[in-house]
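Milestone M4 deliverable, item 7.
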Amino acid sequence: MAGRDVSEEYQEYLAGYARILADASETGRRLTREELDSRRVLGEQAAEAGLGLRALVGAHMAATRAGRPTANGASMDSVLAAAAQAIDAFAEGYERAQHLAVRQEEAARREFIDDLLYGRSDLGRLAQRAERYGLRLASAHAVAVARGKDAYGEGDPVPREVERALIGRFSDRSILLTTKDGRLVCIAPGDQDEVVTYFAKQAFAATDGGQVAIGRPQPGAAGVVQSYEEALNALGLAERLELDAPILRAADLLVYPVLTRDRQAMADLVQSTLGPLIAARGGAQSLLDTLTAYFDSGCVAAEAARRLSLSVRAFTYRLDRIHKLTGANPADPVHRYTLQTAVIGARLLDWPTKSF
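Output delivered:
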């Protein structure tokens, strides 16, 4: 732009400005609604053309100096007042167009994320859209999902904090960070486990002790959906089984989907193995909690008793009661596997709260 009059460079977006300035400043009147609207329209057009607002304002000021409408008797104050109104309307139109573009971009990004995570849209078109966000769907990707005490949306402080940390550490990686249903979601190349691991640590800290699940790396667009669902299922399992580990890996929890794949068979096992506990005084829940603590503590009665705030004697009494009611001895390795599997099934199926 060097060596050229800046007003000429942007002449298209100054159309009618000199006339409006002269007419308004001569009498000191305010600009009419039609005049202001014409400036807003030109501002919108300039924004859509990708021109910078600072340079455009400079072009208006150059045109103001060049026009010198004071020759017609207008005072400098009235000239500047008219110029201020015109430029303000122009900037308003410019900003309105920018805000609209941002909203459209946000809507397009949200639509892409929904299509990606739910497996919608044509795969070829989805892959093209993914490149815009730095993802190459021909490769494998892993998805990590973090939940906290609160629900998070795009632009909230927590997602921004995690995103800044990721960009600061992995600026050149193909990473997509977003939110979905109040959770933080990170999509990263499947061969870069350090990315999702770092995301998990940052999300755990930013959500004040939330929980993060990491799906297995899977190839293609369908693999993103599968990895995302694995992460969600891992969070669901953690809630039902009361798993309090801050980071869960779907690969470490594969046994649970296997156990519940035949729901009816699992329900039969729970009913036949643990059903007699319902006859206990106070119902089955306290004895089910006893078995849960026993197995979670590695079948160490003293540790299990501590977790339940019981004396060792009281705890072993409960184990004896379970043995008498069910016919299965928790301390017997032969019976232990059946009992432990039934306990896991009861927690997954929310028994005895829900009956079969």
